[in-house]
Design brief:
By secondary structure, this protein is an all-alpha fold. The chain is built from three helices and no strands. It has one domain. It is elongated. This is DUF983 domain-containing protein.
Length: 136
């Protein structure tokens, strides 16, 4: 019996690998090209393998997950820090405020990249019925 042949579009896409590549800011297909053209702007296509990425949309999901993680990490630390050292309110506001901003800025592109990798692996190409733009 002959082995079935699949085109590249029908081939299995490993979800974990695609999400890890996306979290590193790399193309979920090849793992070489940059996923983002700017801080959070998904590139139209991979500069290395030319995989179309323009239709990947993460919308508000990465922001919600970032807020969830930062707040769930920050709240217990805030309480523990206060109970251990009793710092002034202004030092807590400045310290934890800056910490939350920095942690959010570091986590947001990684979470968005992982979400785009998940969408690519599961062939979730956007959410609308708009035609794909022509890339020249």
């Amino acid at each position: 019996m002959a082995e079935p042949t699949f085109s590249l579009d029908e081939a299995e896409r490993p979800t974990k690998q695609a999400m890890l590549r996306g979290a590193r800011g790399k193309c979920p297909c090849c793992g070489e090209g940059a996923l983002f053209s700017r801080y959070l702007k998904v590139a139209d296509h991979c500069p290395h393998c030319n995989e179309a990425l323009h239709h990947q949309r993460a919308d508000d999901g990465p922001a919600y997950l970032t807020i969830l993680l930062v707040s769930h990490l920050g709240a217990p630390l805030l309480l523990a820090f206060y109970m251990a050292w009793r710092p002034s309110a202004i030092s807590m506001i400045i310290g934890f405020g800056l910490g939350a901003v920095v942690l959010s800025l570091l986590l947001l592109p990684r979470i968005k990249g992982a979400m785009v990798g998940l969408q690519w692996a599961r062939r979730m190409h956007g959410f609308g019925d708009a035609p794909e733009p022509i890339v020249s």
